[in-house]
Amino acid sequence: MGAYILRRLLLIIPTLLGIMIINFVLVQFVPGGPIEQIIAQIEGQGDVFGGFAGASETPEAGAMGGGNDTYAGARGLPPEFIADLERQFGFDKPPLERFLNMMWNYMRLDFGESYFRSIGVIDLVLEKMPVSISLGLWSTLIAYLVSIPLGIRKAVKDGTSFDTWTSGVIIVAYAIPGFLFAILLLVLFAGGSYWQIFPIRGLTSDNWAEMNIFMKVVDYFWHIALPIFASTISAFATLTLLTKNSFLDEIKKQYVMTARAKGLSEKGVLYGHVFRNAMLIVIAGLPGVFIGVFFGGSIIIETIFSLDGLGRLGFEAAVARDYPVIFGTLFITSMIGLVVGLLSDLMYVVVDPRIDFEKREG
Q: Which residues cross the membrane (predicted)?
């Protein structure tokens, strides 16, 4: 097992390098870099996109393409000023040199500083991390606590009225887009048109520091209830059906019939034999589900509920062309995703020690 883990860890390096190269190259063709952003603000356009609306000569306006002599809206600015901006942002160097310097800094865990926030990327990520962890952790936990018992019950009651109407509810829940469900929750329970039960924004109240421990816990869950519910709904449906189908597949196998023939009770067969095998795929996917909620659904949920987390940070950085934040968070999240992929494989071994990845590869 140690050799397998070592190979997977070594594979992370070229995979991560490939991710960074592809995204770095793609960014070269995206119009509107930080220099364009500054020029747009100086020209009173507000942001760079206003400059592109009527610009016809912008072939060199690529985001990371330093050394360009023409920028959209820059014709009234001195060339010396543009050259000074390029030096400040490091765009006076060739793209290959900038990429190698960036990766060398990342290897030393130096992710630089945001162009527009005057704060280090690591500090910025750590500042936003609690919101995204809260969403990912609680959404995953609730999804598993509800989906596994419900999925088992549906498998045992397969074909009954209970299975039918719960399947209908699950399909409807899965079909509703997360952002639409989040808006519906705001309208119903956050003062939109009906009840003002939950707060509309933030993770805590303004006077949170003045509360005792019990009130802090209550206030925290009061704020996070709607975002968690909105981000859990799709994962809840998927996990329930996955659990049901996994149990149904195991129940039909020969060893279950043998256990019943030996006189074991239905509960003993279900939880003593079927459970471990059926839950293999469900439990092993726990890290992946957490990462999916942590990164995938956080952008929309954080934006709708005005939560200042990593998803919203990435979106704002992309709009502002804040490249240290974009590439720094990309590197960190890609690294986390690759490590979680390894953890997902190791979860199979924890759930079922009979699995040996080294023998499978051999």
A: 9-30, 133-152, 164-189, 220-243, 280-305, 325-351
Question: Taking the chain, what is the end-to-end CA distance rounded to the nearest angstrom?
Answer: 12
Q: Report how far residue 252's alpha carbon sits from residue 250's, in angstroms, rounded to the nearest whole number.
A: 5
pLDDT in tens, 70-113: 555 555 566 776 777 677 677 778 888 888 988 998 888 888 88
- The domain boundary residue, chosen from 86, 116, 146: 116
How many angstroms separate the CA atoms of 167 and 163, rounded? 6
The DSSP 8-state label assigned to residue 110 in this structure reads -
CB 58 within 8 A of CB 31: yes
pLDDT at residue 52, as a whole number: 39
Question: From the CB of residue 154, how many other CB atoms can be counted at a distance below 10 Å?
Answer: 24
Give dist(CA 155, CA 357) in Å, integer: 30
The parent domain of residue 42 ranges over 2-116
Q: What is the pLDDT of residues 173-204, one digit of tens each?
A: 878 777 788 888 888 887 666 777 888 777 77
CA atoms within 13 A on the CB side of 137: 8
Tell which residue, 280, 172, 301, has the closest CA to residue 230.
Answer: 301
With the C-alpha atoms ordered 361, 356, 270, 343, is the resulting torsion angle positive or negative? negative
| Partners of 72 in beta bridges | none
* Calculated CA dihedral for residues 303, 308, 311, 313, nearest 10 degrees: 110
At 196, is the secondary structure helix, strand, or coil?
strand
Give the sign of the dihedral formed by CA 263, CA 265, CA 266, CA 267.
negative
- The answer on 145 and 73 residing in a single domain is no
